[in-house]
């Protein structure tokens, strides 16, 4: 899981050409303590990191609009509704050269909520 989190962050860094900071909203205790530092060293991007404890907290923040977060980590059973409500942007996979490094089993599981892995 931790490896996938770092891979996801590295994928998304390539989408923020103009931004020097990646704003992340994630579950509490979801990544290893050194993940953000490793990401910053590997990409040159700074990070801001906020956490949430429930799906409802994430959903409320997204529904309020303009959350300011570049990367969020929804649960699979909330992701479909968030996509239907237009809360998650479509990924431009041409801008994600590390997409090929993501776990295919995880991507297959996400397809139930996100056909074609268009959002995550």
TrEMBL record:
It is found in: Periplasm. GO terms for molecular function: polyamine binding. The keyword Membrane does not apply. InterPro entries: Sperm_putr-bd (IPR001188). Keywords: Periplasm, Signal, Transport. Residues 1-18 form the signal peptide. The keyword Nucleus does not apply. GO terms for cellular component: periplasmic space. Its main location: periplasm. This is Extracellular solute-binding protein. It comes from Pseudomonas syringae pv. pisi str. 1704B. GO terms for biological process: polyamine transport.
């Amino acid at each position: 899981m931790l490896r996938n989190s770092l891979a996801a962050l590295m994928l998304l860094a390539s989408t923020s050409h103009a931004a020097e900071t990646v704003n992340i909203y994630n579950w509490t205790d979801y990544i290893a303590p050194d993940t953000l530092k490793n990401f910053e060293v590997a990409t040159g991007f700074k990070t801001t990191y906020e956490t949430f404890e429930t799906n409802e907290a994430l959903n409320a923040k997204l529904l309020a609009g303009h959350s300011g977060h570049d990367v969020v980590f929804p649960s699979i059973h909330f992701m479909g509704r968030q996509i239907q409500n237009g809360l998650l942007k479509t990924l431009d996979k041409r801008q994600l050269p590390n997409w090929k490094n993501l776990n295919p089993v995880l991507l297959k599981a996400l397809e139930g909520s996100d056909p074609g892995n268009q959002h995550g």
